[in-house]
Amino acid sequence: MNKKPQIFPLLLISLLFLSCASRKTTSALPDKKSVKTAMQNVFNWQIANPVVGNVKNYDDWARSVFYSGIIRAYETTKDKTYLNEAVRWSESLNYKLANRYRHADDHTRAQAYLGIYAFNKDPKIIAHTKAVYDSLIVDPKPGRVEWWWCDALFMSPPVLARLAEATGEQKYNDFMNKMWWDTTDFLFDKEENLFYRDKSFFDRRSPNGKKIFWSRGNGWVMGGLVQVLEHLPKSDPNYKKFEDLYLKMAKRIGSIQQADGLWRPNLADPAEYTNKETSGSAFFVFALAWGINNGYLDKATYLPIVLKGWQGLNEQVTPAGKLTWVQKIGSKPELVKSEDNQEYGSGAFLMAGTELLKMK
User: Fold this and answer.
1) In the chain, which residue ranges form alpha helices assigned H by DSSP?
2) Which end of the chain is more exposed for a tag (fewer CB within 10 A), N or C?
3) Quick check: helix, strand or coil at residue 317?
4) Are the C-beta atoms of 206 and 272 separated by less than 8 Å?
């Protein structure tokens, strides 16, 4: 009597093998060389292809964010190519902030300045930054007045935290805390654990009747938040509040990642604009990877999200190194085209890469 082939057990074994292989693939870290290469390609392309409009004062922040990523890339890799470019650019600006001293966007340059200062301790590097903030501290306005849009939480707070660290003067952290938490009390939706871009969005809804939470706007917040957590002393009375805010946002952001590893322009309504968007996505990958590396997030839960996001970002980089699908300068969720690129997107990509390099 012939025995029937044991098809079902073999099939089951095969499925189990494939399942394990799939899980292994989604949790395997990319090799460091490939991450460094991806970062270098994006850096090289963006340096060779600057966005012309960003030389204008009001768009200065867009280029400054790129250099925030560049100095962070140097801090992590110690590749002098990054440092030399950051120094060249900073010296071309005479280590000064842009012209609107009360506007957070025009403080962003100093993220690179403070990074450079950390290595050579030349007082001239931070002299103008210090003078500007000293003038604001003696003539303060509420956060919701001066930092009325959530992007400001990326542009200025990391500078203040690093300035306090560099000088040992607590007044910069005190000022940052007052401004941050007044802005947060104003713009943070406690039900959604996301930030409105500004007060004009409180009652606005998408065509599908859902709230509007701009991806890059929340990316700005998380990108600023993790830098504050890096440089604010853990003994600071508000440190725990920053931790709690980070954890709430990380959980929410992790839950709304899309199938391609990226996030959509309107976080609360991915169907409003279904196109990819890489600038907000890069900041989320950066912030979530940072949380894993610093013990805030469960690795088993968040590593697959980070790796899927990193893969999704890299799939939008052309062979020449151009990061595509970057939403242009704006203030709300909008249509993005495949050819769209901006320097802040490349800066966020470099930041994300630095945290991938630190992963073990």
Assistant:
1) 7-27, 32-48, 60-77, 80-92, 110-120, 124-137, 143-146, 152-155, 157-167, 171-187, 215-231, 239-255, 278-293, 299-314, 343-358
2) N
3) strand
4) yes
* pLDDT tens-digit map of 79-136: 999 999 999 999 999 999 999 999 999 999 999 999 999 999 999 999 999 999 999 9
Spatial distance between the Cα atoms of 282 and 262, rounded to a whole number of angstroms? 8
Looking at residue 22, its pLDDT comes to: 36
Encoding tokens for residue 106? Answer: 């025009």
Determine the Cα–Cα distance for residues 106 and 184; give it in Å rounded to an integer. Answer: 20
What are the φ and ψ backbone dihedral angles of 181, each rounded to 5 degrees?
-75, -25
Cα torsion 287, 69, 219, 285 to 10°: value is -40
Kindly state the tokens that stand for 1: 């009597």
Domains in the chain, please, with CATH?
A: 30-358 (1.50.10.10)
Sign for the pseudo-dihedral over CA of 108, 110, 112, 114: negative
Torsion of CA 152, 218, 65, 44, to 10 degrees: -170
Q: Which of 62, 105, 70 is nearest to 89 (CA)?
A: 70
Q: Which of 172, 158, 198 is nearest to 67 (CA)?
A: 158
What's the gap between Cα 223 and its chain centre?
Answer: 4
The catalytic residues are 151
Contacts within 8 Å (CB) and 24+ apart, 231-240: 231/158, 231/161, 231/162, 231/164, 231/165, 232/161, 232/164, 232/173, 233/173, 236/173, 236/177, 238/177, 238/181
Which residues are registered as beta bridge partners of 188?
A: 195
The one-letter code for the residue type at 195 is F
Sequence-distant (≥ 6) Cβ neighbours of residue 82 within 8 angstroms: 43, 70, 71, 73, 74
Q: What is the pTM of this model?
A: 0.92
Structure tokens at 254: 């992790």
**Buried residues in 224-261 as b, exposed as e (16+ CB within 10 A):** bbbbbbebbeeebebbeebeebbeebbebbbeebbeeb
Taking 70 as the pLDDT cut, the residues of the chain under it are 1-27
Which residue reads 């907000």 in tokens?
280
